[in-house]
Design brief:
Elements lengths: L4 E2 L8 H4 L6 E6 L2 E6 L9 H5 L5 E2 L1 H5 L10 E3 L6 E4 H11 L8 H6 L1 H8 L17
């Protein structure tokens, strides 16, 4: 869907091109034809072209309304206990591959109750060493 449109009222006066602060509009004259070109990547979305056009030929309304457009849709991972949304399945896979650990799908609330089990599995196997207490007041 193009957010910038020029309707049949355009007479090619170039007011929009000459008054675009972002240089997102330009024109090409070839043979007997004039083309007006718009680059949305350069566009500042200021609406100046829309305001300045004496013919009211620019239909910039969709962009000025600020409507939300879906750009991606991904599978959501939820807490296995309460169903709260956590992150996307793709993010889970990316992190699991990098840390070589299967992430548990638990929200912060349920992660607390399972913290000791997770820590125990992640920590390397070590022999239990007794730590002598040290009294800093005697030093």
């Amino acid at each position: 869907m193009s957010l910038f449109k020029v309707n049949e009222k355009c007479n090619g006066c170039l007011s929009c091109v000459q008054n675009c602060p972002a240089s997102a509009l330009r024109y090409q004259d070839r043979g007997n034809q004039r083309k007006i070109l718009h680059n949305m990547g350069l566009c500042a979305r200021c609406g100046n072209c829309w305001r300045i056009c004496p013919q009211k030929a620019i239909e910039f309304g969709e962009l000025l309304k600020g409507q939300w457009e879906e750009v991606v849709n991904m599978e959501l991972v939820r807490c296995i206990v309460c169903g709260s949304p956590l992150y996307t399945a793709k993010l889970k896979n990316t992190i699991s591959e990098k840390v070589e650990y299967k992430m548990e799908s638990l929200c912060p609330e349920h992660r607390k109750t399972n913290l000791f089990n997770i820590w125990h599995r992640l920590s390397p196997k070590r022999e239990s060493k007794r730590v002598e207490s040290y009294d800093y007041r005697e030093a």
